[in-house]
């Protein structure tokens, strides 16, 4: 019970921290330049910046995800963009905290910035390379929520793969059981944690997609755990 | 392959006898037997899940006359030039070889509910413990004055996929410049509610590039139709002025056709057309009626939790033929219902665990290149019917990237559902 309370408490704190970030007109851009060193091996920003391992990050704010011409994004990033994800304070904060919680199959192999100040500062730094930095609109209305982290008690649930197998029959009309990903992403052989986080992001409507929000919306945490356990091992 | 066999159960006998040698039933090991009639979206899925999940504990026989099943889903995309014909054809090889299903290419022509046997056109008899019917649809006689199945070479329905679909596409391609393509749309309820309107879009797509002065005339007995706002927005955006939709206010419900003269008569007024796609009113596949499980409206009422018919607990009806409640008649729905039925049948015959029934449906439609839309819902079983619990629909004014992603999803779904049906 104590643990539970702690989680709720820290969630509340996280929410306040979040608002604080959003309201702080600019984090510390100078400190941010230093944080940006963690990104610069993959991303260029500034005059004449070109795509490297990652896309160039000029004019990032209000840019739709996955929209730099000529850069080869992961399908997941392209889909997120098509579904309406736009980079702003809120979405960047989530992505930079834990890239795979927002876009589970993103090619950005970066652990994330756990420290909220680091994130605010690096965003302040990047904002200097956006148009009209003083006047950035509010978060896009389609993007709900800020934090995709799932209650540790949910993550700790041991799923029953047999139950998962039964439930999976609903999924495999769209997601191919052999792992092929033509048009619809593959969901086989994922680490269970990523799977659970992705499903709860749809369930809580933090990730935008009408089909998946509907599918996940009626699954209980136990059912999601069962599916994760089943799909992790399928075909092995 | 002559498709009109599909519509004449009676005359099928002669043809089928040459198609498949009389089947010797696999020796009974006292295993429970399930016979499935119809190897489409519902039938192929239920057979595969029964065989797969019972791991040999149930003897599964699938009766389907055609060796190549052409999906109605994506058949409109073939008409529009987005798919090859061969890409919508599927065979039963894996179901037989990998899942041990006894696949019999023949017509079922009789059901003896007391003896629990099915009679085949080729002369065989199949005993069953449970019978599953998923025979799709047949057309109501006299639904469109002037049309019956003998006219389907002149005025195709193309609402069972295969040679009818090829014929309609050939007629469209042969249409004179500036000619008229007419469609007589069906009344509710019918297979694939957005199907006729996706077809109109695909015909328009073909005309736009090949016959830009061509016209489309849609004669509709219904005052409104599925995804109407989305289709009409798309038609204005992509095919402005090409499509004339005539609802019941303007005689869309008073249509007669004259196949020999290639004329349609709308509320007494005669119009000459170049192609005429007649999609008549529908009812359950004939074998459901022969089995005596249909109601006055021509569909088979079922219990939602098991898909067993209200008339006979040992007979289940899936897909288009069933009267189940809120689900549309779609391939997705038939596939979803099949999994619920397979679980219930397995539970009854082998004592395996039965979980609460859940159903889903999503229907995608293509309006023009990379302009896809969708509508979907989830459902649960109540005592009374399959009841809708939640749903969504694409919105008008969506941007091009989302519409493209939606189309790409439908391509993924096609691969997913066909491998879920055929292995
Ligand atoms: C133009 C068009 C577009 C469509 N698009 C979509 C779509 O995008 N998405 C979607 O989900 N659905 C779509 N549908 C609907 C979908 O095709 C049907 O709802 C689905 O096929 C129904 O499955 P079923 O098992 O009831 O029947 P079917 O799939 O039609 O299968 C019936 C089978 O039974 C066999 N049969 C019939 N009588 C007998 C008998 N006496 N003995 C033995 N075998 C018999 C037939 O040969 C046939 O193979 C579309 C339909 C059309 C016409």
Essential attributes:
heterodimer, A: 236 residues, mainly alpha, Cytochrome Bc1 Complex, Chain D, domain 2, 45% helix, disordered N terminus, B: 423 residues, alpha/beta, FAD/NAD(P)-binding domain, 2 domains, five-stranded parallel sheet, globular, binds flavin-adenine dinucleotide
Helix-strand blueprint:
The complex is a heterodimer of chains A (236) and B (423).
Chain A: H1 2-23, H2 29-35, H3 75-82, H4 89-97, H5 99-102, H6 116-127, H7 152-155, H8 161-168, H9 192-203, H10 210-217, H11 221-233
Chain B: H1 9-19, E1 33-37, H2 41-54, E2 59-63, E3 69-70, H3 75-79, E4 89-90, H4 93-97, E5 102-104, E6 108-112, E7 117-120, E8 125-127, E9 130-133, E10 137-139, H5 163-173, E11 180-184, H6 195-210, E12 215-219, H7 228-238, E13 243-246, E14 255-258, E15 263-266, E16 269-272, E17 275-278, E18 282-284, H8 286-290, E19 300-301, E20 315-317, E21 322-323, H9 331-350, E22 358-368, E23 371-381, E24 386-393, H10 400-422
Parallel strand pairs in B: 1-2, 1-9, 2-5, 9-20, 11-12, 11-17, 12-13, 19-21
Antiparallel strand pairs in B: 3-4, 6-7, 7-8, 10-18, 14-15, 15-16, 22-23, 23-24
Helix pairs in contact in B: 2-9, 2-10, 6-7
The structure holds flavin-adenine dinucleotide (FAD).
The site of flavin-adenine dinucleotide has 40 residues of chain B, from helix 2, helix 3, helix 6, helix 9 and strand 22.
Protein described:
The complex is a heterodimer of chains A (236) and B (423). With 236 residues, chain A is mostly helical. In chain A, 45% of the residues lie in helices and 0% in strands. Chain A has two domains: 15-135, Cytochrome c-like domain (Cytochrome Bc1 Complex, Chain D, domain 2, Orthogonal Bundle); 152-233, Orthogonal Bundle (Cytochrome Bc1 Complex, Chain D, domain 2). Chain A is elongated and about 55 Å long. Chain B has two domains: 5-138 and 282-422, FAD/NAD(P)-binding domain (3-Layer(bba) Sandwich); 148-278, FAD/NAD(P)-binding domain (3-Layer(bba) Sandwich), CATH 3.50.50. Chain B is 29% helix and 25% strand. Chain B has helices at 9-19, 41-54, 75-79, 93-97, 163-173, 195-210, 228-238, 286-290, 331-350, 400-422; strands at 33-37, 59-63, 69-70, 89-90, 102-104, 108-112, 117-120, 125-127, 130-133, 137-139, 180-184, 215-219, 243-246, 255-258, 263-266, 269-272, 275-278, 282-284, 300-301, 315-317, 322-323, 358-368, 371-381, 386-393. In chain B, the strands form eight sheets. In chain B, strands 5-2-1-9-20 form a five-stranded parallel β-sheet, with helices on one face. Chain B has a four-stranded parallel β-sheet with strand order 13-12-11-17, covered by helices on one side. Chain B has a three-stranded antiparallel β-sheet with strand order 6-7-8. In chain B, helix 2 (41-54) runs parallel beside helix 9 (331-350), helix 2 (41-54) crosses helix 10 and helix 6 (195-210) runs parallel beside helix 7 (228-238). The two termini of chain B are 25 Å apart. In chain B, 52% of the residues are buried. Mean pLDDT of chain B is 93; it is low at 1-28. The chains are: A mainly alpha (236), B alpha/beta (423). Flavin-adenine dinucleotide is lined by residues 6, 37-43, 63-66, 69, 72-73, 75-76, 107-108, 134-136, 159, 191-192, 195, 199, 285, 287, 318-321, 329-332, 334, 363-364 of chain B.
């Amino acid at each position: 019970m104590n643990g539970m309370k702690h989680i709720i408490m820290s969630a509340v704190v996280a929410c306040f921290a979040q608002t604080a970030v959003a309201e702080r007109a600019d984090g510390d851009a100078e400190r941010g330049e230093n944080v940006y060193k963690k990104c610069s091996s993959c991303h260029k920003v500034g005059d004449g910046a070109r795509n490297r391992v990652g896309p160039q990050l000029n004019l990032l704010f209000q840019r739709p995800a996955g929209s730099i011409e000529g850069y080869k994004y992961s399908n997941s990033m392209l889909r997120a963009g098509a579904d309406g994800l736009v980079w702003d304070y809120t979405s960047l904060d989530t992505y930079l905290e834990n890239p795979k919680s927002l876009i589970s199959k993103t090619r950005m192999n970066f652990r994330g910035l756990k420290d909220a100040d680091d994130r605010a500062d690096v965003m302040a730094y990047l904002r200097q390379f956006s148009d009209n930095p003083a006047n950035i609109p509010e978060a896009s209305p389609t993007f709900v929520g800020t934090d995709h982290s799932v209650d540790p008690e949910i993550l700790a649930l041991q799923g029953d793969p047999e139950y998962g197998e039964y439930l999976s029959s609903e999924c495999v009309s769209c997601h191919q059981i052999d792992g092929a990903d033509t048009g619809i992403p593959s969901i086989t052989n994922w680490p269970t944690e990523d799977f659970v986080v992705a499903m709860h992001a749809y369930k809580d409507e933090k990730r935008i997609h009408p089909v998946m929000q509907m599918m996940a919306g009626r699954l209980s945490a136990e059912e999601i755990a069962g599916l994760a356990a089943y799909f992790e091992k399928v075909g092995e | 392959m002559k498709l009109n066999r599909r519509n004449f159960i009676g005359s099928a006998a002669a043809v089928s006898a040459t198609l498949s040698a009389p089947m010797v039933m696999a020796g009974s090991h006292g295993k429970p037997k399930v016979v499935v009639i119809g190897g489409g979206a519902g039938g192929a899925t239920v057979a595969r899940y029964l065989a797969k999940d019972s791991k040999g504990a149930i003897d599964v026989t699938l009766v389907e006359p055609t060796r190549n099943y052409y999906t109605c889903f994506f058949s409109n995309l073939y008409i529009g030039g987005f798919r090859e014909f061969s890409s919508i054809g599927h065979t039963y090889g894996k179901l037989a070889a990998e899942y041990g299903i006894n696949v019999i290419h023949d017509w079922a022509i009789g059901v003896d509910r007391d003896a629990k046997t099915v009679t085949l056109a080729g002369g065989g008899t199949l005993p069953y413990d449970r019978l599953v019917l998923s025979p799709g649809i047949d057309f109501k006689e006299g639904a469109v004055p002037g049309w019956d199945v003998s006219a389907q070479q002149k005025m195709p329905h193309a609402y069972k996929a295969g040679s009818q679909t090829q014929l309609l596409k050939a007629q469209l391609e042969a249409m004179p410049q500036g000619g008229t393509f007419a469609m007589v749309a069906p009344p509710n309820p019918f297979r694939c509610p957005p199907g006729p309107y996706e077809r109109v879009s695909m015909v328009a797509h073909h005309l736009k590039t090949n016959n830009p002065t061509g016209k489309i005339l849609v004669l509709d007995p219904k005052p409104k139709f599925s995804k109407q706002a989305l289709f009409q927005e798309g038609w204005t955006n992509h095919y402005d002025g090409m499509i004339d939709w005539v609802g019941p206010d303007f005689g869309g419900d008073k249509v007669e056709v004259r196949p020999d003269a290639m004329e349609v008569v709308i509320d007494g007024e005669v119009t000459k057309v170049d192609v005429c796609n007649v999609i008549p009113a529908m009812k359950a596949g004939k074998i459901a009626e022969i089995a005596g499980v249909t109601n006055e409206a021509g569909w088979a009422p079922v219990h939602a939790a098991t898909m067993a018919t209200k008339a006979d607990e040992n007979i289940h009806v899936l897909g288009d033929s069933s009267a189940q409640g809120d689900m549309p008649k779609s391939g997705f729905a038939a596939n979803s219902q099949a999994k619920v039925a397979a679980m219930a049948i397995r539970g009854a015959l082998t004592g395996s665990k039965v979980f609460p029934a859940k159903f889903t449906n999503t229907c995608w439609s293509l309006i023009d290149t990379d302009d896809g839309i969708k509508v979907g819902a989830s459902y649960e079983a109540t005592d009374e019917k399959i009841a809708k619990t939640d749903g969504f629909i694409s919105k008008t004014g969506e941007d091009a990237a989302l519409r493209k992603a939606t189309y790409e999803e439908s391509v993924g779904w096609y691969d997913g559902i066909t491998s879920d049906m055929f292995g």
